[in-house]
Amino acid sequence: MRKLVKDKRGQLISGLVGGVAGLIILVIVSLLIVDTLNGAGLLTTGGASQNATNNMIANYTDGINNVSEKVPTVLLIAAVVLLFGAIVFLVQRSRAVTATQGGSI
Q1: Sequence-distant (≥ 6) Cβ neighbours of residue 105 within 8 angstroms
Q2: pLDDT band for position 25 (50/70/90)?
Q3: Residue 27 and residue 67 in contact, taking contact as beta carbons nearer than 8 Å
Q4: Among 56, 72, 99, 105, which residue's beta carbon has the most beta carbons within 10 A?
Q5: What number of helices (H) and strands (E) belong to the chain?
Q6: Any idea what the Cα angle at residue 86 is, between residues 81 and 88, rounded to 5°?
Q7: Contacts of 57 (CB under 8 A, 6+ apart)
Q8: What is the mean pLDDT of the chain?
Q9: Which residues contact 56 (CB under 8 A, 6 or more apart)?
Q10: Residue 18: which H helix or E strand, with range?
C-alpha cells in the first residue's frame, strides 16, 4: 500500500515538472519559428500580406503575454502542492521513526 502512495506522489511531481517544462519549450520554439519566418521574409509578399503578418505577430505576442501572466499563478499552486506533499512526507517519516523507538509524536 505504501508503495502505491509513493508512486502517486512521484507521478504528481513529475507531471507538474513535465507540464511546466513542456509549456516553456513550446513557447520558445513557437517564438523562434515565427521570428525565423518573419526575418527570412517568408511571411511577407506585399502590402496586404505585410499587414496580415504584422497582425499575426501582434496577436501572437498578445497571446504569449496572456500566458506569461498566468505562469506565476500556476507555479505558485505547484509550489504549494509540493510544500504540502513535503510536510505530509516529513510527518509520516517522523511517525515511522518514533513508532520504532517507542515514543509518540
Answers
A1: 91, 94, 95, 98
A2: confident
A3: yes
A4: 56
A5: 2, 0
A6: 95
A7: 34, 38
A8: 75
A9: 34, 43
A10: helix 2-39
C-alpha grid cell, residue 73? 499563478
Q: What are phi and psi of 42, to 5 degrees?
A: -75, -20
Of the listed ranges 32-36, 41-45, 61-65, the one predicted with least confidence: 41-45
Domains in the chain: how many in total?
Answer: 1
Instruction: Summarize the chain as % helix, strand, coil (round to 5).
Output: 90, 0, 10
> Given this model, what pLDDT does residue 85 score?
81
Helix axis angle, 47-101 to 2-39, nearest 10°? 160
Give me the residue label for grid cell 502505491.
Answer: 4
